[in-house]
Design a protein that fits this description.
This protein has 2 domains: 2-165, no CATH class; 179-224. Helix content is 75%, strand content 0%. It is built from 11 helices and no strands. The chain has helices spanning 2-32, 37-46, 50-61, 66-76, 79-91, 96-104, 108-118, 128-152, 166-175, 182-197, 205-223. Helix 1 (2-32) runs antiparallel to helix 7, helix 3 (50-61) runs antiparallel to helix 4 and helix 7 (108-118) packs antiparallel against helix 8 (128-152).
């Protein structure tokens, strides 16, 4: 258990280099949008999804109705259903409490390192959910600290820093190591092309369209 947990922590640390500036930006934007500090911090611990928090903050700042905020963030985070379906077969033996905990910690970064670990046979396979826990908790702790720093230091962050570059870097670091065969490479390319082409779709539907197109392309390659 200890071996797997620490391996999860080590695997997640490189991705934290991109996630920490991302959290800092969210904290600063939340304060600029007029969200109270306690509410901004609560969003990080309850929602725990950077993209949803960014979109929710932007919609809040624009005065959008609560129903629109909920629907938009729900659609944006539908990708987590795909993550869950991917790891579920490997976690079905766990007690419900474990499944709820790991479900809460399931993020893009935690999924990326965990699914890669699950695909490699190790002597500690029976304890591999501890790897998931180590990766998830590492990201969770870093996210809470970075968003808190953003909330507290919002007024002191220069607007010219343009730290938004951290977001695409995170996803590049996640995706590239996973493109190991023709199916995954075609899936990634198809998803990127469709998502960019549909970037102007309402409620960020272009992201969902890209994901579905990528899944379809990868499935067709594997089937053939």
């Amino acid at each position: 258990m200890r071996t797997e947990f620490l391996a999860g922590v080590r695997a997640e640390i490189p991705l934290m280099l991109g996630a920490l500036p991302f959290g800092l930006i969210y904290g600063a934007l939340a304060r600029e949008a007029g969200i109270p500090p306690a509410a901004a911090l609560a969003m990080s611990s309850i929602v725990f999804a950077g993209s949803a928090q960014f979109i929710g903050t932007e919609l809040f700042a624009s005065g959008s109705p609560g129903a629109v905020i909920l629907l938009t963030t729900f659609v944006l985070n539908l990708r987590h259903l795909l993550y869950s379906a991917s790891v579920a077969p490997r976690l079905r033996h766990l007690r419900p409490a474990w499944k709820w905990l790991l479900g809460y910690l399931l993020t893009d970064e935690a999924y990326a390192v965990t699914i890669t670990r699950f695909q490699v046979r190790t002597p500690t396979d029976a304890d591999r959910h501890w790897f998931f826990l180590g990766a998830g908790l590492t990201l969770w702790a870093g996210w809470q600290l970075s968003t808190a720093a953003g909330v507290l230091l919002a007024a002191g962050i220069p607007t010219g820093w343009d730290l938004e570059f951290a977001l695409p870097l995170i996803f590049i670091a996640i995706i590239v190591p996973m493109l190991t065969d023709r199916g995954t490479r075609l899936a990634a390319l198809t998803a990127a092309v469709v998502a960019v082409a549909a970037a102007g779709a309402p409620l960020r539907a272009g992201l969902i369209a890209g994901a579905l197109a990528g899944i379809t392309a990868g499935w067709l390659v594997d089937r053939g």
